[in-house]
Amino acid sequence: MRWSSGTRWLAGPLARPKPAGEISFSPLPANAPPRSRRAACLLGAGLLVLALWFVPELPVAQSQPEQKQLTVYTSQTSYSLPVVNREGQEYTGLLELLEPVGAVSGKFERNTWKFRFGNREGQFTIGSSKCKVNKNEVDLNAPFLGENGRGLVPLHALPQLLAQILPDHPFDFHEPARRLFLDKVGLRYAAEVRTGAAGQLVITFSAPVNPFIATEPGKLRMVFRHEPLLPAAPEDTLKFNDKLISSLAFSESNGNAELTVSTREALMAFFSADGKTITLTPTNAVTAVASPTQSQAQTQTPSQLPSGNAANVPPDLSAVAKPPSLPPPRGFLVVVDAAHGGEDPGGSITDKLAEKQVDLLFARRLSSELQTRGIACHLLRDADTTLAPEQRAALANAAVPSLYLALHATASGTGVHVVTSNLASAPAAAAFLPWDTAQAAFVATSRAVADDLTTELLKHDIPTFEISASLAPLNTIAAPALAIEVALPPVGGVTGLTSASYEQSVSSAIATVVSAARGRLPHARTGK
Amino acid sequence: MIVSRKLLVAVLLLTIAVCGLGVYVWHLGRSASQIPVQAADARPVSPPVAGPPTPVVLFVPNDDDAGLIKQQVTIALPAASSERGREILKALLARCQAQGSSHPLDAAAGINEVYLTDSGLAVVDANAAFAEGHRSGILVEQLTLASVTETLAANLANVTRVKFLIDGKERTTLAGHADLSDAYELTAAAHLVK
Questions:
Q1: CATH code: domain of residue A196
Q2: What is the C-alpha separation between A298 and A117, in angstroms, rounded?
Q3: Which of A208, A297, A511, B54 could covalently link to B77 via disulfide, CB atoms 3.0 to 4.6 Å apart?
């Protein structure tokens, strides 16, 4: 070791005399030793590399449009599951996938995850790409993962797994679009252009549909989130020899199906035949006969809802001069809100089962029950997403529902707790309702429906308590609104709470009451 | 290898400081371990309540019939209204914390203070365990809030609303459901009284 002197450092190449006017940004003094300066340079370079490494990630994370999901269609219902990326592979939870299909259970024992579905058993090992289902070895093509008590399997391996787990359920898996069809479910459509005074595209479906409709220049898009829509065989695109509407294209991605209409004019959608027929008509032709109020209500509506109303027939625009037979802007819609979700797990049903999961199961079941009765239903959340009470209220109010139902679950108490707002009933004094007390104008109707529901549930031998409570977002809902808290069944404890029979029994009772109350609940968009 | 004299001195001083601190920490740890651990502190945290035995009405929540059961008990109550409110609520919580309660509350749940205002608003400041240890559910949370509100109103004149704080701070919900953002109206709890 030898000592160095200050004059020696100044002789170094980095210690050149600073010209007049030059500004130095170096954190080290000019007489710092060369080794220290070199270290500082290396540190700075390292930080720069780190910064450059992370900066490109930021816009990517911010611009992700939507979460990946897998949609499963069964003969009873349809549901979506979150899909996660791990080491280049797409994964989903096997338990969550099978839960709506039948009784399923799974538990971890160290590195092994054992699950049971009916009389079928499976055994997975974390990190292993082989598993056993009913003593048959299945190649997953990627390692099995265990995260937060969930068993994750690669999407790519679903066909092999389902062939073993559901041998009696034929299925069709559209892997690139992440759509799984069980029991040969499928919904077909046919389309034709009717020429006349104005071109009309009439699309007929084999079952009622409720797509999300959006327009953009030259296109009208219909996104089918819950319907097992399949292409009009054999082509994905139907072409028309029409001057306004040139084609109807089918596509599917991220668990959704989509029909895109290429058009030269803005179109409006009308539903008829209980939601089995959608008629797309140029806006200009309709506004020629529509009253201003009616036309505005229709053109501003992002999603038209199917209605069983016989009057909801598309206008015959080949005879525009005749008295208008426009569909009245009404529809009976129930908004079903699975409480909690995402970062808000709600209460704990068991150590491994959060309330938000049970809420969603009940919501899906109820949605299916309502749709079976021909009632249009909108699920506020159909995945594990975070929604603040204000967002829920805003989304629900925007849908102008006939009834809002929030679904909760609890492991405390038994039966069902039917909850209404604790606001005092007050008539709507003006067209605009105060946000915090919007429910006051509807609370009398809400309590009437709650009374009916309590009576109906008691008929099913389900202990039921009706209370009013301060519970977000009930007070801010501008429609009749109930919260339904499903507690433990009289027998069966926590296991019974998640049993298909209990879900079915409660959901069926709710749907029966909603169906019976249609006549006295306001119809969407009219308030009548 | 070139090392400056100043750098070497600085490193030496830092090394000495680290060693010195290490010895000091070790010494503290050894001293602490020699202090005998007291098994339990039996002394009361607050002095016993002084006051004449007074009959009070409690609205005890009952999960089985989703209601509040009216009970009359006699407890020693101080003269000041706020302290009376706190003692009454402590008696109410004790009912729920007893074994076999039909509406069990966390054993550590407690009331820090009760403040009364002239406008009929009572502010109940509960401890963290009151909320953190509460069971989650619309009905069970609602019963707890309703029982506190009804009990205060039944025993303290002019109380018509109750605002709940947890450890002196506002909280959105009790345990995920019952809204605590606004004061709780007495009329909103009346329908639960059996």
A1: 2.60.40
A2: 47
A3: B54
